[in-house]
């Protein structure tokens, strides 16, 4: 439930951050449309997950697993560093490293998931560039 609440907060923040219209943007659908759409979809899924967890919560809280605030805050910190890293080193390296860091923090130890990080990152970059015609950040260090 903690992860859902933190993710919902992060999505609201991301939605608010994408509300600024780009200079000279006269199109109805700009580069901010897909992140906003993703925010709405993920926020809806988070709300559904939170409601499901509240409904199925047992009356005996002693059996419930204690909240791991330290891990949740570390994941949130990785996401913040990911956002900064994307501006500095670009989308691909930041996403691969961020994906792997979150997998590690969440306790994933199967090597196949770590191979999925670059595959997922390259596929998403390709889809945005070729299908949506939205180019992801290259990073200020490489310009």
From TrEMBL:
Residues 5-137 form the DUF1468 domain. Keywords: Membrane, Transmembrane, Transmembrane helix. The chain crosses the membrane at residues 33-51, 72-105, 111-136. It comes from the Bacteria. The keyword Electron transport does not apply. It holds the Pfam family TctB. InterPro entries: DUF1468. This is Tripartite tricarboxylate transporter TctB family protein. It comes from Parendozoicomonas haliclonae.
């Amino acid at each position: 439930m903690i992860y859902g609440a933190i993710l919902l907060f992060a999505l609201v923040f991301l939605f608010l951050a994408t509300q600024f219209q780009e200079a000279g943007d006269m199109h109805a659908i700009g580069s901010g449309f897909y992140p906003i759409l993703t925010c709405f979809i993920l926020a809806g899924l988070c709300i559904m997950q939170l409601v499901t967890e509240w409904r199925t919560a047992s009356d005996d809280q002693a059996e419930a697993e204690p909240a791991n605030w330290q891990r949740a805050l570390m994941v949130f910190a990785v996401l913040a560093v990911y956002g900064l890293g994307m501006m500095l080193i670009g989308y691909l390296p930041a996403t691969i490293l961020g994906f792997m860091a979150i997998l590690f923090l969440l306790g994933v130890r199967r090597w196949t998931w770590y191979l999925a990080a670059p595959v997922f990152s390259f596929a998403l970059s390709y889809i945005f560039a070729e299908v949506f015609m939205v180019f992801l950040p290259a990073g200020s260090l490489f310009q």
